[in-house]
Each structure stands twice: as structure tokens, then as C-alpha cells.
Amino acid sequence: MFDGLTGKLGDVFERLKRRGALSESDVQAVMREVRVALLEADVALPVVKEFITKAGEKAVGQEVLRSVTPGQMVVKIVHDQLVEMLGAEPEPVDLNAPAPVPILMVGLQGSGKTTTTGKLARRLTQRDKKKVLMASLDVHRPAAQEQLRILGEQTGVATLPIVAGEQPVSIAKRAMTVGRLQGYDVVMLDTAGRLHVDEALMAEVASVHDLVQPHEVLLVVDAMTGQDAVNVAKAFKERVGVTGIVMTRVDGDARGGAALSMRAVTGCPIKLLGVGEKMDALEDFHPQRIAGRILGMGDVVSLVEKAAETIEKDEAERLAKKMAKGDFDLDDMAAQLRQLRKLGGLGGVMGLLPGIGKMKKQLAGANIDEKQLAHQEAIISSMTKKERKDIKLLNASRRKRIAAGSGTTVQEVNRLLKQYQDMSRVMKQMGKSGMLKGMMGGLM
Ligand code: GDP
Which of 26, 154, 309, 353 makes a 20 to 30 Å CA pair with 167? Predict the structure, then answer.
């Protein structure tokens, strides 16, 4: 469903030929086209506006990396903005609650709710080895309960025995009791849908919700319905709360924009995609992958990423040289921290040095956590230039000021300084012994 944008944007990016930093007029021209393409892909107007503003701000003045074209650079910026607006990280269905974990499936009739209930139950059973019980609360549509029972039989997932004439809240209550007594890990409740959002539907879903206090409320929407799906999501979110969205019929030829609007307008994470009628046609939602599909320019994106890595490598080499000479200051440490954060782990300078595994661990062990890296960067940037070059200046009152300025504590500032001292001591020793020089061979 995501082919729409690809071809259109390709031409636009081609036209950007000038080197150097991206100019405002170039970026504006491209963003105009991106705007049209997004609207044509069925992205809601306010979402498009926000997208264009943010991507534009990131692009203007951006240095074009060596070895890529300005057009490729913009593709990468547009891609990254797509990823960010799609939620950045995948958010899987969460079962982290006391068993039986209640999952409430909600949505309009025909959205693919029952099918998705079967798919997810099957996956939880087969892949995640969970004991799952499914129950249909749909007493309105004839044969809905029977449909779920048959799906259960096909997929080998247990379903709650059907009791004729029983009302939704009672069925839900019975399902939870059976779930508890018979040791189920998960109880999936498939609620009734309607053709449109109406009060009766919402009231019924709300009363079941109040009773079972579901850990996940998964709203199933049909991607083919585009902007309508977004409105449906808004309505459900306001009335019963939604913890995640499942978009179905992503295998069809719907324009991909609905996914982007959905996430941006409702703020709810898209957790799963339905990609066909078969029981195994269920995918996790990966913002990275979807952004790639919307743009259809995965090659360009990885090209720019590689170019960026080369730049990082140059920077790492510069730092490594400074280290070997023994003049490694807090600015260098900040640069190092930035790299660590970008690489999501230990890399950069240390990664370039062969045979340094043990020290790697020593330096990394404690502080690979993202948040901590960000704190450490903040601490360093709250120091004056002078302080960064000479940490002897950092008396108690200055440390206090730095902690306040960086939103951290004096203890954290002390810890960072200690770490810096440890790092530079190790480096000096290595420099003296010629070890660092030896190891870095070609770099020096
Ligand atoms: P409900 O009324 O919301 O429970 O909808 P159903 O689960 O009965 O699904 C309605 C129809 O949509 C069925 O024919 C399903 O096979 C079909 N369907 C559900 N999910 C998908 C999907 O991801 N892709 C495709 N192509 N069809 C789907």
C-alpha cells in the first residue's frame, strides 16, 4: 500500500544539485513537493503541515555529507522525520501484568477485528508459548461468536463455550473467571462492532472496559478507509482509551498516509499490521520499515547513513590522536559521549582500537544507558570553556552551579569528573607505554 510516494519524490530529490549546505530556497522547493506527495498519500493536512515544518527546519543549513548528493541528504532527513512521527521505536503488545492479562479488541464492524483476534491469539500461543483464551462478546451480529469459535479450532486456541442469550458484560466476566481458574496467561475479548461509531456501541464497550480493566485495548482499523479510520480512532480513544492500534488490510492498495496520520493525530502507537486474510498475516509495526516503505528509498537512506558513519570515523580518528598525545579534555569527552549515544553503545574511538576489549568494558560497563549519556553531555555543556579545559577549577560552588544548570545532581557531576579522570589516566599510561601508539598503527 505504500508505493504512492516513491516515484513522485524521486524526481524532486534529483533536482537538488547544488553542493554545500542546503539552502532555504532549495529546501522550500522540495518541501512543497513533499507536501503534495503526502497529501496525495492521504496524510491529514495538519499532520502534513507539522511534518513539513519539522523536516524543513532540520534540512535548512544542513551540511551535505561528502559522497552523497544534496537530494540524497534530503531523502534521509525526510525519512528520519517520517520515522520520528511514526513513533520511532516499535511498541509491541504488552503482556506485563498479572495473569490472566485481559486484552480488549475494539473497532467497527468489518474492520477485521475478529480475524485479528484470531491472528494475535495464534501468535501468542505458537510463538510466545502463552496459554490464550478467546471470547466473543458480539451478541449482535449473528454467527459472530461462532466465527471466533471456528478460528479457535483452526488455530488451536481455546475459546469460551458459547451460552445462548448471554450479554456482553456477563460473557466478559465469565471469560475472566475461566481464565483465572484454568490458568490462562491471556484472555482476549472480541467486542461487537457497528457500522459507525454510535453511542450504543461505545456504551457497551465502556461497560466491558470498566469491568475487566483491560491491560491492552487494541483498536482495529481498516487502513483502506484512510482519514475515516483516524476519526474512528479519535472517538474510541476519547471514550474508552486505546493502548494500541492495529491497522488491517495494509496488503491492499490503500494510500500509506493513514498510518502517519493515525499516529500523529491520536498519539496512540500502531502496534500491529494486518497484511492478509490468512491467520499468519500479522506483522509488528516497525516505524523504520514503514518509513522506508512510504518513501520507497531504502537504498538512499542506507547510503547516507554510511556517509555519516564515515564522518564519525574521521572524528573518532581525530580524538584517538589527541588521546595518544595525552591531551584529552572534557570537550573531547563530550564528543565521545555524543558518539556513544549515536551508536547506541560503545563504539567510536574505542571501537577503532583493536585489542582493547578489557578497557572497553571498564569504561563502558557503568554508563551505556542512554539517559545517563544524555545527562553526562548536559553536565559538560553546562561548564564554561575554561572549566572544560581545566577541571581543577571546579570547586564545590561551581559543581553546584553545573548540577543546577544541567538538571542533574552534584553527585552526578562528581561521578562524571571521576570518570573523566580515570579515562585520562588510563590513556596517559597507554600513551607513555607506547601501547596506544602501537595499537593504533595506521591511524597515527
Ligand atoms: P470484524 O467485523 O471487524 O470482526 O471483521 P472480520 O474479522 O470478520 O473481517 C472482515 C473481513 O476482512 C474478512 O473477510 C477478513 O478475512 C478480512 N480481513 C481482515 N483482516 C485483513 C487483512 O489484514 N487483510 C485483508 N486483505 N483482509 C483482511
Answer: 154
Question: Which residues is 105 bridged to in the sheet?
Answer: 190, 218
Flag whether 368 is in a domain: yes
Q: Residue 260 C-alpha to ligand 1 middle, in angstroms?
A: 22
**How many CA atoms lie less than 13 Å away from 340 in the CB half-sphere?**
25
Q: Which atom of ligand 1 is nearest to the CA of 109?
A: 2
In a domain, 328, yes or no: yes
For each of the chain's 444 residues, which pLDDT tens digit applies?
Answer: 445 455 566 666 666 655 566 777 778 877 887 888 788 777 888 888 998 898 888 887 777 666 666 777 777 888 888 888 888 888 999 999 998 999 999 999 889 999 999 999 999 999 999 999 999 999 988 789 999 999 999 999 999 999 989 999 999 999 999 999 999 999 999 998 877 778 888 899 999 999 999 999 999 999 888 788 888 888 899 888 999 999 998 876 655 677 888 888 888 999 999 989 999 999 888 888 777 776 765 555 555 666 566 666 666 677 777 776 767 788 878 877 776 666 544 434 444 433 334 444 444 444 456 677 788 888 998 999 889 888 889 999 999 999 999 999 999 999 999 888 887 777 777 666 555 444 444 333
- Say what the ipTM of the complex is: 0.98
Strand partners, 244: 218
Cell numbers for 84 = 520520528
**What CATH number should be reported for the domain holding residue 17?**
1.20.120.140
Q: What is the reported pTM? A: 0.67
Claim to verify: residue 119 and residue 212 sit in the same structural domain = yes
241 lies in a domain?
Answer: yes
Closest residue to atom 19 of ligand 1, CA basis: 112
Kindly state whether residues 204 and 108 are assigned to the same domain: yes
**Same domain, yes or no, for 166 and 33?**
no
Asked if residue 335 is part of any domain, the answer here is yes
Distance CA(424)–CA(430), nearest Å, equals 10
For a mutational test of ligand 1's pocket, the pick from 114, 115, 272, 283, i.e. the residue with the most ligand atoms closer than 8 A to its C-beta, is 115
Whether residues 237 and 111 share a domain: the answer is yes
Q: Measuring from each residue's beta carbon to the nearest atom of ligand 1, which residues come in under 6 Å?
A: 107, 109-115, 193, 248-249, 251-252, 274-277, 281
Residue that is last in its domain, among 23, 54, 86: 86
Contact (Cβ atoms closer than 8 angstroms) between residue 175 and residue 133: yes
Using alpha carbons, select from 37, 25, 29 the residue that is nearest to residue 61: 25
Residue 267, C-beta contacts closer than 8 angstroms, at least 6 positions apart: none
Q: Which domain holds residue 339?
A: 301-443
User: ∠ CA 246-237-124 to the nearest 5 degrees?
Assistant: 35
